[in-house]
Amino acid sequence: MPNTSQSTYEVEQGQSLWKDAFRRLKKNKLALFGACFLIFLTGISLITPLIAPYEYDAPDYALGAAGPSAEHWFGTDLIGRDLFTRILYGGRISLMVGFVATAVSLLVGVLYGATAGFLGGRIDSVMMRIVDIMYALPFTIFVIILMVFFGRNIILLFLAIGAVEWLTMARIVRSQILSLKEKEFVEAAISMGLSRFQILTRHLIPNTLGPIIVYTTLTIPNVMLLEAFLSFLGLGVQPPMSSWGLLIHDGADSMLESPWLLIYPSIALSLTLFSLNFLGDGLRDALDPRVAKD
Predict the structure, then answer these.
(1) Which residues is 82 bridged to in the sheet?
(2) Which end of the chain is less packed: N or C, by CB atoms within 10 Å?
(3) How far apart are CA 198 and CA 186, in angstroms?
(4) Collapsed DSSP state (helix, strand, coil) of residue 265
């Protein structure tokens, strides 16, 4: 006789949170565009020394500022350097600042916020008051003080930006830990004899990855804007190195005579920031449990 129980009832296969989130993310066209553009831009940045048509610091004083042409697609700057080449190299610096400074803020913010939320009580209050005090410090003054004492270099730029951006990450992680540490799985881990460190690293922090990933994708454009702002003020990347912020600063000084010096770096920075924000919004919607049933 046929097994009617197997033919009548079928076991429905469940999907994990990440698979379900990826399925929803694929439906978001803007988020996919942002992800593809960022992958393309990162790949181009990695192979820039191989594909750049000119040296980024090789001036041609006789040529000077010339508009776009077959030899120089985006034109040249005031001392004859190829703008397309400088945008490619500037993209490497801007992306590196964005990713490295975000990684610093991610590491510090997650550990600090998770520790404060998990320990709670007076320790939590003291740790978060420190965050409030640092929030009140003017960022630009903080960077200027660092530049005065330690000199101008790109490593200091990473640390300066990362030292500010971790504050919001710490608050987000702390709020997540405060709500998660009262859950049943934490009580089960305590009953099994796990240490506080094991509970924090194996159970609590992994369950906050959704908000962390979303905020990380939104932090990168903010960091890149901060770098552009500092370079615009002359506090960021120093010549002959270039970043998109420094190129925009140089282009703004001569925008009436040579508008291409401002237009092309601005387009590159704007497309990157839009792509990061599209991806961040898409990840936020994909990982939102309120739309899990959609």
Answers:
(1) 76
(2) N
(3) 11
(4) helix
User: What helix, strand, coil percent values describe the chain, rounded to 5?
Assistant: 75, 0, 25
| Sole residue written with tokens 């709020």 | 175
CB-side neighbour CA atoms (13 Å) of 257: 9
Instruction: Quote the pLDDT of residue 190.
Output: 76
Name the average pLDDT for the chain. Answer: 79
Q: Which two tokens stand for residue 155?
A: 């490593």
Domains and CATH numbers, the chain: 32-47+76-291 (1.10.3720.10)
* Total count of residues recorded for the chain: 294
- Please give the DSSP secondary-structure letter assigned to residue 191: H
Question: Per residue in 144-153, is it b (16+ CB within 10 Å) or e — as a string?
Answer: eebbeeeeee
What is the C-alpha separation between 117 and 190, in angstroms, rounded? 17
Buried b / exposed e along 22-52 (16+ C-beta atoms within 10 A): eebbeebeebeebbebbeebeeebeebeeeb
